[in-house]
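Notes from the 1:1 (GR / supervisor)

We went over the backlog. Supervisor wanted to see one worked example end to end before approving the batch request, so GR pasted a single chain during the call. The sequence is below; no edits were made to it. Supervisor asked that the structure be written out right there so they could see what the output format looks like.
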Amino acid sequence: MAVQEGNLQAPTRHPIDWKNPDFYSENSLMEELERVYDICHGCRRCVSLCHAFPTLFDLVDESPTYEVDGVEKADFWKVVDHCYLCDLCYMTKCPYTPPHEWNVDFPHLMLRAKAVKYKKGDMPLRDKILTSTDAVGSIAGIPVVAGVVNAANKAKPTRKLLQSVLGVHADARLPEYHSNTMRKRLKGHVGATAEGEPAGPTTGKVALFATCYGNRNEPPIGEDLVAVFEHNGIPVTLAQKEQCCGMPKLELGNLEAVEQAMQANIPELARLVDEGWDIVAPVPSCALMFKQELPLLFPDNSQVEKVSKAIYDPFEYLFLRNKHGKLKTDFKQPLGKVAYHAACHQRVQNVGAKTREVLSLIPDTEIESIERCSGHDGTYAVKKEFHETSMKIVRPVVNRVKKAEADHYGSDCPMAGNHIAHGMADGSRTEHPMELLRKAYGI
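Structure output shown during the call:
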C-alpha cells in the first residue's frame, strides 16, 4: 500500500507513556530516534525553525553514507541538546504527525531523550540550577540580595567568572530579580471573592496564576493585567499559593519534578475552577504547560483535565469577551506602529492570533506581526555553548523589528521580548502587549 505524502488532518497528540519502563530504555530510544531522524532527513521542511534540524542535517550530510545510518549514535544527542521543545515543528511544519501512519512527534521524542539523559545522570549542575526557578528566586528575591544579584549580573568581571565556573555565557542577558514581587504588589487580591458577568465560555472572573517568572522577574506584567481586566469589569483573584508550573523541569527531562509541581499546583487551581473562576497565566509557557503538557503526562487525572479546560492566555480571554460584546473599547491613546512578536508557546496553543486582534481594536494603531522563534527558551540562550546560536536565531526577528521602524515592540513572552531587546543592542526597551493595552486605555 502506498504511503500518503503529507497529512491533511489536524494533528493529534498521544499521551506520554513516561511511567512505562521502556520509555527510559536507551536502546529503544535510539531505534526511534533513527526512525524519526530518517523521516526528517527526507523532508527537511523544519530547517529554519531552530538549530536542532540544521544540526541533524549537517550530521547526515557529513556522514560517510549521506544517510542517517552513517551518523554515530553518540551524535544523536547533539540534536537533542538543541531542541528546546518550542513545539513549532509539530504544530506548523511536520506533515507526518499523527494520525499519519508514520506517527512523528518530534518534540515529545526529544522530551523522551532528555528524560533518558536526565535519568542517566548526564546533566550539568548548571542546568539543574537554572531550572530550579523557585529555589533560585526565593534567594535572589531577598531585598538586599536582589540588588547584589542584579548588579553582579551586569558586571563584566562577575559574568566572566560565572561563565568559567557555571557555563553561563558572559554576554547573555539575565533576568532581573524583584524583591517587591507580583504577589506582594497584588496582595490585596489574594483570596479575593467576587461575582463575574459570564459571556460565552468565560465566567467573567479570573484567578491569576502569577508564575515564578512573572512573580519575581516581571511583576509589572501582573499589575498591567489586573488593571486592564478590572477596567473591563473582570474581577481578579490571585491563587493562594503556587510554585513553578514545571516547564523548566520538563525541558530538563526531570519528569518526577514535573509531577511534584503538578501535585502542588493543580489542587489549588482546581478548587478555584470549582468556585467559578477562570484561570489566566501571563507567561505563555505556563499556560501551555497546563493546557497541553500536563494532560498528556497525566491523562487519567480529572483535576488536571479540569484545569486544562479552564485556563486561558490573557489575550485569548479578552478576545472572547470582545466577541460577546463585553470588552471596553474606550481607548484614549493610539499606539502608532507596533512590532509584535508572537511567542512560540502561545502560537502552539491553537487559539489564533488573539493578541494581534485585540491590539488591532485600538484606533490609529498598526500591528506588524512577527511569527518566528526568538531562540531564547528560558535557559537555552544563557548557556555558554548555545548563546551564540540563540543570537543567530533571533537575528531575523530583530531585523524585522528594525525594518518596521515601529513606535513599540514586544512579545507575549517576556523572556523573548528581552532577548529581542538584547539583539537590538540600541538600548531600546521591549514592552509587553498588556502594558501597551493598558497604555492605550490610559489607566
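Supervisor's comment: The chain has a mean pLDDT of 92.
Batch request approved.
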